[in-house]
Write the structure tokens for this entry.
Amino acid sequence: MNNTHHAMDATTVTDPTAQRRLTILLSVCIFFSVLNGTMFNVSLPDIARQFHLLPSQVSWVVSGYIVIFAIGSVTYGRLADSYPVRNLIALGLVLFNTGSLVGFLSQWYPMLVAGRIIQAAGSGSIPALAMLIATRYFPAEIKGRVLGIIASTVAFGGGIGPVLGGYITGTFHWRFLFMLSTITLLTLPSLRRHLPSETARGGSFDVAGALLMAAAISSLLLFITLGLWWVLPVAAGFALWFLVHIRQRETPFVSPDLFRNRHYRNMIITGFLVVGTIFGMMFMTPLMLRALNGLGTERIGLVMFPGAMSAALFGTVGGKLVDRKGSIPLVYTGLVLLGTGFVLLSLVAGRSPWIISLTLIVCYVGFSFMQSSLAHTVSGTLPRNQMGVGMGMYNLFFFMSGAFSAALIGRVLDVTKGHAPVNPLAAGEIAGPYSNLFLLLACSIAIAAVLFHHTFRGAGGTSAPSLRQKA
């Protein structure tokens, strides 16, 4: 273990100029990766019209991307424990841009879906390796700041994505959404120059384990996104097969020891609960503004935009606070802000859009604090030789929580129309389903807070890295 530590420490980026340039390059890649995931939602009606598709058919533009992206995020993380990161991110960017070119040139719907899948196979590398680069190669005293910048970039891309996607689709054509992503190819030479040079550490790659995990995740996400109930036992069967397989392999795709680490395991559950509420809020708020306030797409974007921009601003602030105060206090701050924001949204659902817009700022700031501090805390629970696959699994659960919460909230809204609000101060019965769901999100935050406190009580203001030796 000591040899591994010395080898990894030798790759730390210490030159301030290189640190700044590497942070900018990572931010550019992440920005366009997030855009690619959010822009296409607004173009689905145009794609369905052009290819004469049913809603269930055109959904593969999004769901096919989701499945491959989720699998890729953990696969690249696992590979990063054995192979140089600079080579893996180069492979990811080449695939990402190849898929963009295929999508731009597509004349048939299957070719369009193929382009999105190739894109996902590449873009899955970006969040997984970006977080790994921040936690592995940057000095501990600025790690939080870098993660904060990443959090700000994600928030900014998420906020501007639907607006930009709608403008490009309406002004030009949905095909040009693909070409926008090709800007990331320009970062490749500089990334290879500034990332530390490593030698492959060898070791076998568990292909069978990767395929079994891919089958389990694909089946589960198909169940979540498409509601195919018969797929659930299939997913459970693949998951059980995967668990048996990794216990029998000497060098499995994911080591069982990873989930025997109590701090890491509890942080994954905490992250799943917290991130699910954030994605749920982002999914539900536009539906609420359309149903209760009668707003069009452009005005919905304007209502949500201040919150997204606040997250972009406070993500950097949160990162600096992590470096100064530690990640654990910032997790508590983010939990309080999110819980407060959801309770307030339960009160203002159906009221003035600008009151809702101000309330969303509280939630988005809580989101930005959580995003940088959660990743920092998770990385601190991992030994360095499991950092790649551990952060990859974190990204996997991060992403799956969004798919799960959106599907769950959509189904609850379908069956609770006309239900009275539980909150006596809510804006009338018409706001009932949305008001109740925001209270449910607040309850999820409360459960996450209890689990987090139970896991890290006694840690005080320390950052997660001090817990690494205890994990």
